[in-house]
Amino acid sequence: MADVLVVAEVAEGKLKKTTHSAITFAQKAAATIGGTFSILVIGDGAGKAAAEAQGFGAAKILVVEDASLKNYLAERYAPTVAAIGKNYGVVVGTASAYGKDLLPRVAARLGAGYASDITEVIADGGALKYKRPMFAGNAFGIASISTPIQVVSVRQSAFAAAEPTGGQSPVETVAYAGPSKAAERVEFVSFDQVKSARPELTEARVVVSGGRALKEKFNQVLDPLADALGAAVGASRAACDAGYAPSDLQVGQTGKIVAPQLYFAIGISGAIQHLAGMKGSKVIVAINKDADAPIFQVADYGLVADLFTTVPELVKGIQAAKG
Ligand code: FAD
């Protein structure tokens, strides 16, 4: 096995934090297989983001910029990532929406085995094995890949963000390999970004999540608590499906995976599909009026109470403590 290639994620000329988790993986994987790691920065603003990527101790930074890469489409990116990836033993990205879209296509083009959403990389002599959740996180499997190239996506919350080491990796410009045939059938229409003053859900230190119980008062009850704590707001699928919260706030098996320092589950029953997205949180606080709600089995602190009276009291208490 040769070296490791990190496929960076770029937004507005900056590396997204997701990339830092993939770099942490790459540092460990490269040390295990006795190779180096490089970072591929592709897309709009790649040149600018490359300067930031230089500080992580990579062997080199590969930059691909082209007018047709301005708006992300997997069909335009995958051929170039695969063309560069074929020179590496391991190609890694993060299991974000971007990674989940792009990396399986890269793996298919390379004829490579693919381990998705891994939570741990295990050194097995000079080889790599990957721990990954199965059955909504109720079981873990250990995967090993036997193809010459391995493609891996890492769960962001399971790998600490790499810190810059202050180095200056050399930058190499690589030509765009052109779109895949499938790109002819795909058109970029628009990118509608939700702008919020709150931290990004998957990156927040504190998450305040609400369930179906909040009904139309979802924002009225949760926003003051989130504001008091500088927290991101999350939601159960039932709350999203009922239209009380937008679907991009959904936490769980079919939503976002979060692992903040502090997670509030407010009026959330604790179905396994919800737990799959938050049980890695450091401290879990649950407020539920049903003492038998399953959420209390994973909660560090549980309050059997009516959320509509408890949460405003909690907000008052936090504000008083802040002075
Ligand atoms: P409920 O189960 O209705 O629970 C509401 C809770 O609020 C109850 O425990 C109740 O006691 C409490 N409550 C009511 N009133 C009050 C009050 N006044 N004060 C305090 N507590 C109160 N779910 C997810 O969340 N994320 C996922 O990603 C997800 N993916 C899924 C994928 C599949 C394939 C399937 C089948 C399901 C998935 N689900 C997911 C749905 C999941 O099974 C549950 O239905 C959902 O999580 C329930 O949401 P909830 O806890 O908000 O609602």
UniProtKB/TrEMBL annotation:
CDD domains: ETF_alpha (cd01715). One of its GO terms (molecular function) is electron transfer activity. GO terms for biological process: fatty acid beta-oxidation using acyl-CoA dehydrogenase. Pfam families: ETF (PF01012), ETF_alpha (PF00766). Signal peptide: none annotated. Binds 1 FAD per dimer. Its cofactor is FAD. Residues 4-189 form the Electron transfer flavoprotein alpha/beta-subunit N-terminal domain. Keywords: Electron transport, FAD, Flavoprotein, Transport. SMART domains: ETF (SM00893). Belongs to the ETF alpha-subunit/FixB family. The electron transfer flavoprotein serves as a specific electron acceptor for other dehydrogenases. It transfers the electrons to the main respiratory chain via ETF-ubiquinone oxidoreductase (ETF dehydrogenase). This is Electron transfer flavoprotein subunit alpha. It comes from Polyangium jinanense.
